[in-house]
Sequence to fold (336 residues):
Amino acid sequence: MRRRASLVLLAFAVFFAAMSPLLRWYAFPRLAKIPPSQYQETVLEAKPATLLDYNDNMKVKRVPKVTIVQTLKGNVEESEKIERSAGRDVVVWDALSFVAGPDGKMVSEIPERYIFDAHSQAPVHATGESVDGDPVRREGIEFKWPFLTQKRDYEYFDAQARTSSPIHYRGTRTFHGMDVYYFEQTIPWTKVPMPKKMPIKGVTPEQIAKTGMTRWYTTKRMFWVDPVTGAPVNGEEIHKEELRNARAMGLPQDTVTVFAGHVKMRQDYIDSIVALVKSQRLLVLLLTSYLPWGFLALGAGLFALALWLEARSRRPDGRLPNGTPAPAPDPQPAPA
Fold:
């Protein structure tokens, strides 16, 4: 090319064309991460609900409301410690699910430690991974889906049962003006451990286990997930827990309902989560869609402009713009 502008445009065209895949496949996995210090609190409610009153002769009552407060707190010190051996960015969430009755008193309290890859959300197995003090080895996701969630089933970890099972993609829906993916998981009746912290003072899970009484649970779990960030913007559960072989504790029924209700996220928390997700999804879209495709289109445009300027720099008679003839091509060597 003989025009300096054409060469400059060609150089920029190559630069932007090269930046397009680099942003998507190199920068995105390294920049789109869950911050290790993240703190999140969510309040869910069951209105009304069935609840076992441990302090009133173990009577099952219909109550106006049961509240579940779920907190996720990033443990930066632990994440840095695990990163040194794992060789990748790791997030450690210390989670707590606190269930309170209509009087605000504790019904159950289950802590968790969830360790996962900061970008893919895949579990990272390390010392401290636990539910209610019991070591676990998670398979699949919990709390959050991966960035760029796909229309497929995922393995989802159930903290009550301490096992993973598929959570099924059930279609795309509109929620608060967003296109979201709807997922469902049903856990059939499953025997689960007693909580370490009981609502009755002086009573331990070991004492209850000696009586032969067992705790069983089933739930239908529903999530509305933003496919760009992988963050759930709404969650619900149709939840039921029972104590079986309850006559061992002197109760008239052999099966007693501990808790039953349709648990839904409180509206003010839905609004705040939706606002947060809408602000964060733009950053992910910039790295995965807007900038890569924009740079590719810009590179193609600059390349076309460079060719156009070069074509204009020559006359149909082969002369350059200053009137001098264009240099003849080098002669081909004669055949031997």
About this structure: The CA atoms of residues 318 and 330 lie 16 Å apart. The helical segments are 4-31, 76-86, 205-211, 267-312. Residues 267-312 form the longest helix (46 residues).
